[in-house]
Design a protein that fits this description.
Layout (H helix, E strand, L loop, with lengths): L9 E7 L6 H4 L9 H16 L7 E12 L8 E12 L2 E10 L2 E14 H14 L3
Antiparallel strand pairs: 1-3, 2-5, 3-4, 4-5
Length: 135
């Protein structure tokens, strides 16, 4: 199947840093600042939303690789704006540049890969593999 997603396709979204997004809450640190796992999640969400409308019904993407530098801390209550820009399509592999900013500048940046899947086929294979795991 051919997927026509133009290079340069991008999406941004905003997130208010709540207690549940802090390093202390997710277990990645001991203080109430925006966590690296939450940074990665908002970047992945921006990438997913950038391309989802280009995919046929029943298709989506899954993250397969991410390389992110968390450049500075953001306090609880701050606002993060994450953006993902598609830089290359290689078959079913989508390659993105990702960035996140708060009012004081860049919070994180990096690269992210996603793979296009047929949702039902993907889940069926996982369930079949799980069923055969005990054999």
């Amino acid at each position: 199947m051919e997927f026509n997603i133009p290079d340069g396709t991008s999406h941004s979204l905003k997130l208010r840093v709540e207690k549940r997004h802090t390093a202390k809450a997710v277990g990645s640190g001991g203080i109430d600042v925006f966590s690296t796992p939450s940074l990665v999640a908002v970047m992945e969400q921006a990438a997913l939303e950038a391309v989802q409308s280009f995919l046929p019904e029943g298709w989506t993407t899954v993250g397969t690789r991410i390389d992110v530098e968390h450049c500075k801390a953001t306090l609880q209550g701050g606002e993060i704006r994450a953006e993902a820009t598609l830089i290359r399509v290689e078959g079913r592999v989508l390659k993105f540049l990702v960035e996140a900013h708060d009012v004081d500048g860049i919070v994180g940046k990096g690269r992210h890969h996603r793979f296009i899947i047929n949702r039902d086929k993907f889940l069926r294979k996982l369930h079949e593999a799980a069923g055969n795991a005990g054999s």
